[in-house]
């Protein structure tokens, strides 16, 4: 393991030719349900597998299979009902205490402290919904869907159906892949020079300095999640199976919670309370997801990479141990989470040494840095890309993804 000048710990190196392989399916990615293949399709798949025997592509596929075998043998994929029961109990107590603060403090500016508590509580609730959506908590997929739907829409104000497609089907399957991963699609920020060059006027000026606006923009991340969720429900996005149920739940959350705040603290303080809570939620939530991929290699749409390297090379871990694990809901172990999305988040710190050592053996870069360093990397990257002059494939890691 080495540490470069930016404070990033890495394990191993990469051979560019190793990456230009056809792309096997993701063995552990949580995807939307698809019909079972017919006999002819299964026969064709088996024939392709026979043709690949002894090839480099089969070797890459077996790389992950060998790691998965180690993880299964260690029992780290088994669900943790006791741990998850404790999480639900603690969240329940957290809501009781938070609402007690809201109504007991009343019309006082001390409610801003309550707003911070609610912002953090909603983020911790989102982590549970995230884990349930990845089938880390419940054996039954249907139970997990209902729990995620209730938690996501009624408690967080986030459409489960919209998020499931965006996060699981697109992001996890193709992290940092241009034109596929919605997390790097152009919006307020741009993540590729090509997108930056299309900006004109004020948008161009902003893009050239977007890195400095990154942290302030996180205060709006919660609002964006609410808006995108409502838009998806109103439009009837195909991935939303229970449109009316989600609509009712999210309506209760987005209308009812501000109304409760105004009732308890008065119109002025209640309104400011809601805005502070929304900003804290956005910073906490966005600040937990952004460090894991932003500033990591962005892969051209036509480049195909095997599952193990695709999930490892485009992800970044955040050091800090169990405290950081609590703060980020286990997402600080992003490499391990992408490799084993159905693994209980409480087990990720236990599988990390296995994954790190395996990457060292296979000469696969394993990136880990501090939270502060990750933000520095993101800000510098966004400013560089926003100028529209820098090539995201200039750095030693990303240069190896260029199509040939």
TrEMBL record:
Q: Which organism is it from?
A: Brevibacterium sediminis
Q: Give the stretches traversing the membrane.
A: 88-106, 112-131, 143-163, 211-227, 248-266
Region described as Disordered: 1-40
InterPro entries assigned to the protein according to its UniProt record, in alphabetical order: FA_desaturase_dom, Fatty_acid_desaturase
User: Which residue numbers delimit the Fatty acid desaturase domain?
Assistant: 108-369
- Keyword line: Membrane, Transmembrane, Transmembrane helix
Quote the Pfam families the UniProt record gives: FA_desaturase
Which protein are we looking at? Fatty acid desaturase
Q: Where is the composition biased (Polar residues)?
A: 12-33
């Amino acid at each position: 393991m080495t540490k470069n000048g930016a404070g990033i710990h890495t394990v191993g190196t990469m051979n560019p030719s190793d990456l230009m392989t056809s792309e096997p399916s993701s063995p552990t990615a949580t995807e939307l349900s698809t019909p079972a293949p017919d006999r002819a399709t299964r026969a064709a798949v088996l024939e392709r597998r026979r043709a690949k025997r002894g090839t480099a592509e089969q070797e890459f596929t077996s790389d992950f299979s060998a790691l998965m075998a180690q993880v299964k043998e260690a029992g780290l994929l088994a669900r943790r009902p006791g741990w998850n029961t404790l999480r639900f109990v603690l969240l329940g107590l957290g809501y009781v205490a938070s609402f007690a603060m809201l109504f007991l403090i009343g019309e006082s500016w001390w409610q801003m402290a309550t707003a911070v508590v609610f912002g953090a509580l909603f983020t911790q609730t989102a982590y549970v919904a995230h884990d349930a959506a990845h089938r880390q908590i419940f054996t039954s997929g249907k139970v997990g869907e209902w729990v995620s739907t209730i938690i996501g829409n009624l408690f967080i104000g986030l459409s489960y159906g919209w998020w499931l497609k965006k996060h699981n089907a697109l992001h996890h399957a193709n992290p940092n892949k241009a034109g596929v991963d919605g997390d790097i699609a152009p919006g307020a920020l741009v993540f590729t020079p090509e997108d930056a060059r299309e900006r004109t006027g004020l948008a161009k000026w902003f893009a050239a300095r977007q890195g400095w606006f990154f942290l302030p923009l996180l205060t709006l991340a919660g609002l964006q999640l609410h808006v995108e969720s409502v838009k998806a429900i109103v439009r009837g996005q195909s991935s939303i199976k229970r449109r009316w149920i989600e609509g009712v739940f999210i309506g209760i959350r987005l209308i009812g919670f501000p109304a409760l705040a105004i009732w308890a603290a008065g119109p002025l303080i209640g309104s400011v309370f809601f805005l502070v809570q929304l900003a804290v939620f956005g910073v906490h939530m966005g600040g937990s997801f952004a460090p894991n991929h932003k500033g990591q290699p962005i892969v051209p749409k036509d480049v195909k990479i095997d599952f193990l390297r695709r999930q490892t090379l485009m992800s970044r871990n955040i050091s800090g141990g169990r405290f950081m694990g609590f703060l980020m809901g286990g997402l600080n172990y992003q490499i391990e989470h992408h490799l084993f999305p159905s693994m209980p988040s409480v087990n990720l710190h236990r599988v990390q040494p296995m994954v790190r050592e395996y990457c060292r053996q296979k000469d696969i870069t394993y990136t880990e840095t501090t939270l502060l360093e990750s933000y520095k990397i993101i800000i510098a990257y966004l400013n560089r890309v926003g100028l529209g002059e820098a090539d995201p494939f200039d750095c030693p890691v990303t240069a190896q993804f260029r199509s040939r």
